Task: inverse folding
């Protein structure tokens, strides 16, 4: 932060804090930095479980207290939306293209950038937010808007109608060609050409002349079956005659799964009838308030959907609109501490900790284990006596096949001290981390609870501190 | 935007758009501005109803299309959270202090700034987000953190114990004074002094010596009744002996309404017993996942709460996590247009419109009326035949006592052309606008639907366009 800005902030604080405060405090504020702060964390993109600390911050109490809100603000929504995106990815399967389209419903422009970035980490393929594309290198995708189609009334409004064949040669009037194809398509589909909206046809022709290699259609501005679909097929077949291939269609209303199957049928019929093999596999994209339930419905009923745009239900996370990460004091001046509450679930686990993920013989993690920092690491293949949170009264024996220490030190002495992964690396790590989970832990509905445990020594420390505070 | 930045953006667009695009298009993009755009709007902070356009944007189609996402992104969440804040204000009543505390659960730092700004507009009094205070001039408030209290073990850790009386004179050891008051308070409250946590007492003393005119307590780090409350009363009474007055307490767990009454009882008992009249009215603040239901519970059961901090349920709006404002094309080249859908609720109302709010004799608005821009304004006291949305088949007669045109032109020829109100002015306008509503329209549960209507001419235009598109 520049000196001038820092002075302005300190002056502001002076204006709102009680006038009894010593000047020395404000002088001290102006000297504050993170040079004595150390941060350890579980690598970004890792699956984490409730109660397991994924970030540990050491340093002067005042400084680390000032970091509390900043860190929670940066982590809570990022983790929430990445998790939500990962749920959509799990439901959609690995091959579905998923586009984040939440800019309009996010908490302003910066909330939307966070949504784009962390949806990508969670497993989305691309975003409609061009600024997120520019800033973070996330692939961008878009389709056509209804308003573009509505802005045309008829073919006379198409300003540029001529397109040369892809292989070269004299330009052809694409509008005339599309009109003649429309007749043939309407015969095949048994729908009256008079019901194909002329403004929509004009919009498609106009788009196709401008983007001959990237033509796509939005089918539902007017009637899909009698207008959008015949108009799209007519323009796509006209383009095909000139050597170009359409790249897709989008549907934004109605029963998307059912319509996708009907549209696929029409594409296949056109492909067969007009001998255009690629026509049967034109990608179908859908949007319109897509939720987890929508994806479940698509899977249940079957669909021919290739690409899904998700906005509101991705970025606002309506199934759980907030994530309640907390930042708790666990040690002061080398002494572990504990805030007692009546709710065992809300008890903090005292002391600086090492965290281990224990894997079974099949390579699935089966438990996260918290130990005191000074304890020796558990060994692979050796039996351990531990206490599982939620049933602390009994000792459980486990024998991990592999033991992974989860925390790394990312920041020390005021410096980042570990190379930070790129966004695509974090995204890949997230999918790897999720894929390691056993299916019972990974499933979205009623997953088997993943046990989190403490070592015997940590448990004894907890009992001792609780005894002392009562 | 600087030339260099603009060039970088255009270069990015060139890199992601199809390579078939003419260079001239990118040259054109670099010249784009809003000089031909006009924006009319209903004044910020006004109550608005579904289906009534609150912003109308005129200009070249390409430019106003580019504004779509920006405007929706800026308006949707802002309107949603202001509305949510206004609901909390209606439930809490005009005298309750409401603090926005959502920074940790908002969509990153900028989402949180939007939350603070628009919660204030919706009727909150202050925010815990210091940056929002600095940037927007919103009053800031905070209390003590549990971690501050937990960081103390005993009175020996209090570094500065001496405080001079307010009226001047020799400094007194506040820790010793508080210890002696604790004995007396514990006798009065019939609770053993040994149960009052010494670290908590040390934290309170330390805070009081630093902020003698602004002492406040957080009561629930340990047991409220046996530790937090006696410790707070002891320090507050010690301060009182030196001429200082405590400013409040906060509770962050448990049954807040019930505890507030018990705490008020203790304050009144102390006030009476030790003859400190102001003690009975020490403000009680509460926090901890406060929702609309919490406020309803406080009202139903009665409470002694004076101030409420609301975070998650304010900023993430869990009852409705997104607002679905849309931006629709209603006129092209002077011709009104219509996108047909099967759902009448989603039909756009064609054409540029004037919007009137009609008031009854009691001064309550009873209907919003959309008219074509060129129609004469309805007159106060004259009967009108209109069509109410949702029952368009019949004509309804209404006679407004007052007619208010709602839209003003805020932006013309690339310039803001109307003075923009300050944040406190918008906040006041929001409360005035809400207070004008009749109680039946204003109530939060099952409010009487507020009718929105169109003029006969607008209705005829709609029928004619629908006829033409079918």
Result:
């Amino acid at each position: 932060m520049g000196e001038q800005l820092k002075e302005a902030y300190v002056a502001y604080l002076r204006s709102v804090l009680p006038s009894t405060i010593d000047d020395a405090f404000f002088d001290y504020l102006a000297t504050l930095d993170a040079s004595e702060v150390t941060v350890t964390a579980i690598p970004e993109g890792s699956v984490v479980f409730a109660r397991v600390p994924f970030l540990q911050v050491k340093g002067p109490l005042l400084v680390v207290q000032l970091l509390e809100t900043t860190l929670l603000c940066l982590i809570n929504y990022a983790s929430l939306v990445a998790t939500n995106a990962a749920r959509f990815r799990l439901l959609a399967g690995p091959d579905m293209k998923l586009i984040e389209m939440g800019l309009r419903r996010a908490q302003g422009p910066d909330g939307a950038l966070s949504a784009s970035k962390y949806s990508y980490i969670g497993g989305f393929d691309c975003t409609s937010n061009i600024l997120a594309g520019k800033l973070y290198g996330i692939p961008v995708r878009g389709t056509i808007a209804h308003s573009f189609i509505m802005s045309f009334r008829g073919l006379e409004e198409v300003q540029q109608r001529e397109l040369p064949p892809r292989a070269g040669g004299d330009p052809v009037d694409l509008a005339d060609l599309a009109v003649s194809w429309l007749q043939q398509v309407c015969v095949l589909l048994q729908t009256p050409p008079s019901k194909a909206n002329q403004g929509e046809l004009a919009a498609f022709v106009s788009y196709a002349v401008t983007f001959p290699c990237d033509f796509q259609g939005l089918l539902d501005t007017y009637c899909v079956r009698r207008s959008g679909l015949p108009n799209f097929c007519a323009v796509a077949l006209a383009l095909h005659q000139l050597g170009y291939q359409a790249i897709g269609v989008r549907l934004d209303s109605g029963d998307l799964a059912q319509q996708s199957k009907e549209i696929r049928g029409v594409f296949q019929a056109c492909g067969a009838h007009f001998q255009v093999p690629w026509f049967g596999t034109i990608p179908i994209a859908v949007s319109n308030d897509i939720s987890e339930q929508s994806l479940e419905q698509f899977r249940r009923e079957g669909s021919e959907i290739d690409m899904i745009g998700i906005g509101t239900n991705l970025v606002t996370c309506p199934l759980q609109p907030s994530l309640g990460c907390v930042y708790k004091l666990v040690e002061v001046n080398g002494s572990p501490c504990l805030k007692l509450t009546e709710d065992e679930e809300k008890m903090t686990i005292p002391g600086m900790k090492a965290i281990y993920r224990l894997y079974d013989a099949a390579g699935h993690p089966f438990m996260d284990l918290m130990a005191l920092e000074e304890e020796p690491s558990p060994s692979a293949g050796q039996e351990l006596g531990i206490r599982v949170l939620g049933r602390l009264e009994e000792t459980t024996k486990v024998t991990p096949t592999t033991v992974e220490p989860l925390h790394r030190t990312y920041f020390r002495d005021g410096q980042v001290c570990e190379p930070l992964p790129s966004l695509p690396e974090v995204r890949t790590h997230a999918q790897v981390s999720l894929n390691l989970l056993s299916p019972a832990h990974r499933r979205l509905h009623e997953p088997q609870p993943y046990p989190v445990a403490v070592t015997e020594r940590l448990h004894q420390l907890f009992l001792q501190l609780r005894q002392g505070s009562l």
In short: The first strand of chain A starts at residue 38 and ends at 41. Chain A has a mean pLDDT of 94. Chain A touches chain B through 69 residues (CB under 8 Å). Chain A has 15 helices and 20 strands.
